[in-house]
Amino acid sequence: MTDLDLLADADRRARAYVAGAAESRVFPDDAALSALAAFDEHLPDAGLGAASTLALLDDVGSPGTVVSNGPNYFGFVIGGTLPAAAVAERMMTAWDQCASSFANSPVADAIEKTAARWTLEALDLPRDSAVSFGTSASAGGLACLTAARRSLLARQDWDFDADGLAGAPAIRFVAPDTVHITIRKVLRLMGVGTRNLVLAPTDDQGRVDPDRLPPLDGAAILCLQAGEVNTGSFDPFAEIIPAAKAAGAWVHVDGAFGLWARASKTRRHLTDGIEGADSWTTDGHKWLNTPYDGAMSVCRDREALAGAMNSDAVYATSSADSQKNLGIEFSRRARGIPIWATMRSLGRDGIAEMVDRHCTFARRLADGLSGAGYEILNDVDLNQVLFRLESDEATRAAHAAAIATGRLWFGPTVWQGRPALRMSVSSWHTEEEHVDRAIGLLRVVSGRPLT
Distance (Å, rounded) from C-alpha 69 to C-alpha 80? Predict the structure, then answer.
C-alpha cells in the first residue's frame, strides 16, 4: 500500500465513522470496552506497519469512542467538529507546520493574525487586544492570570521576571464560590494555594452577588464567569466590572463556552459590560464546534501578555505578536487555522444562528423534561439544562438507565449539595428531532407520564 493509498483508506474509514455517528451508540457497550485490551501490546521489535495500525485504530478504536461528534451527545458542553474545521485540520496535518512565528510558517502567521482579528470582531471585544491560540481555556487562563499578576506587581515596582515571587507584595485572587475547577488548577500552578483564593458569594444560579463582593484594590485579580458550568448563568458584569476597575483591580472573565453568547442576536444582553474586563478566555471546541486543542485567550493590554509570555531566543527571535510570544507553547501547531476556517465558513450570522438555535433547543429540552416530571433547577438562559427527580436515588437511577440505552449521553453533577443531571446543547449536529428523542427517553426512564 502506497502512502497515498494509506491516506485514502484513512479518509474512507473516517467518512464511514462520521456517516454512522447519528445511529451509533453514544457510549461504548461492554464488548467494545473489552476489545480495547487489544491496544495493550508489547512494543514490537519489528514494526507492524501503518496499514495494520490504521486498521486497529478503526476496527477496535472506533467502536470504543464516545460519539461526541454526533447529534445525541449532550455532555460537558462539547460541540462536534464542523466540516470546515475538519478539512482545515486535514490540510494542517499535510502542511506539518511549526506555527511559532512567521519564520517557521508564513501561512500560519498570516491566517492566525486574521483569526485573531475576527475573534475580536465576533466577540466585540477591544480591537487592539492581543489574542493567543492555545491548547485550552485552562492554558489561556494561565497565560492571562500570569500576565495579570506580573502587571499588578509592576505597578508596585516589583520586577517579577527578575525577582520572582519570593518577598513579592501580596496579590489577592477573588473568584465566585462556583468558580470552575480549571481556574482553581491554574491558581495551584501559579503557586497561589487554594486557601488563599477569596470566594465571592453567589445567588441560587451561581452568579456573583455584587452586594457581597469582597473588597477589591490595586493588588487584586477578580475572576468572573460567562456561563457557570452547571446553570449557564452570567455574573452581572455591568455592575461589578466598573467598580472593580475603579478600585484598580484586574478583571478576568472565564468564558469557556458562555463568551460566545456575545456573538448571539438573542443572548448578547447576558454579556453586557463584559467588554470592560482586562482579559478573557474561551474555547473553540465548545460552542464554535472546532476540534479539540484550540482555544483563545484575549488580553486588553497587548504588552502585558507579550511581556509575560515572551520566548524569544538568540536563534529564534520574532515579533511581539508571534504566537510563541503570546502563549505558553514555543513549538506549536497552528490552532487558529480551524478557528479561522469555522468563522469564515459560518460568518457572523452563522455563528449567531448556531448559538441562538442551541439556546432554543435547550429551552425546548427543559420544557419537555419539566412535563416528564423533572425539576428544572436553572433559568435556562443559555444552552444548559440542570435538573433532577424528587429523590437522589431516582435521579441517579434515571441517569444510569438513560445512559445504558446508548442512545444519548449526558453527565451527572452536584448542585447545592445534591445530585443533579446536566445536559448541554452545543453540537452543530443536534436538531430538534434529537432533542425530542432525548425528552422521550428521559420520560420513559423517569417512570412518569407527561403532564
Answer: 4
For 429, the grid coordinates are 449536529
Q: What is the number of other CB atoms lying within 10 angstroms of the CB of residue 318? A: 19
- Tell me the per-residue pLDDT of 361-386, one tens digit each, with 9 for 90 and over: 999 999 999 999 999 999 999 999 99
pLDDT above 70 for 320:
yes
CB 371 within 8 A of CB 450: yes
- In the chain, what are the helix, strand and coil shares in percent, each to the nearest 5? 45, 15, 40
In the predicted model, what is the mean pLDDT of residues 255-270?
97
Task: State the SS3 of 228-251.
Answer: CCCCCCECCHHHHHHHHHHCCCEE
Alpha helices in 336-380 (DSSP H): 336-371
Q: Which helix (H) or strand (E) holds 143?
A: helix 137-155
pLDDT at 451 over 60: no
The helix-helix angle for 137-155 and 302-309 (nearest 10°) equals: 100
194 versus 266: the higher-pLDDT residue is 266
**Strands (E) located in 324-448:** 375-376, 384-388, 411-415, 418-424
How large is the greatest C-alpha to C-alpha distance in the chain, in angstroms?
71
275-307 pLDDT, tens digit each: 999 999 999 999 999 999 999 999 999 999 999
Angle between helices 336-371 and 106-123 (to 10 degrees): 40
Neighbouring-strand partners of residue 134: 295
How big is the chain by its Cα radius of gyration, in Å? 23
pLDDT value of position 449: 55
Give yes or no for a contact between 281 and 295, defined as CB atoms under 8 angstroms apart: yes
Give CA torsion, residues 356, 360, 363, 367, to 10 deg: 180
Reduced to 3 states (helix: H, G, I; strand: E, B; else coil), residue 350 is helix
Closest of 320, 309, 331 to residue 146, by C-alpha:
309
Cell of 255: 468564558
Q: Quote the CA–CA distance of 305 and 309 in Å, as a whole number.
A: 6
Counts for the chain of helices (H) and strands (E), in that order: 13, 11
Q: What is the pLDDT of residue 316?
A: 81
| pLDDT computed for residue 224 by the predictor | 98
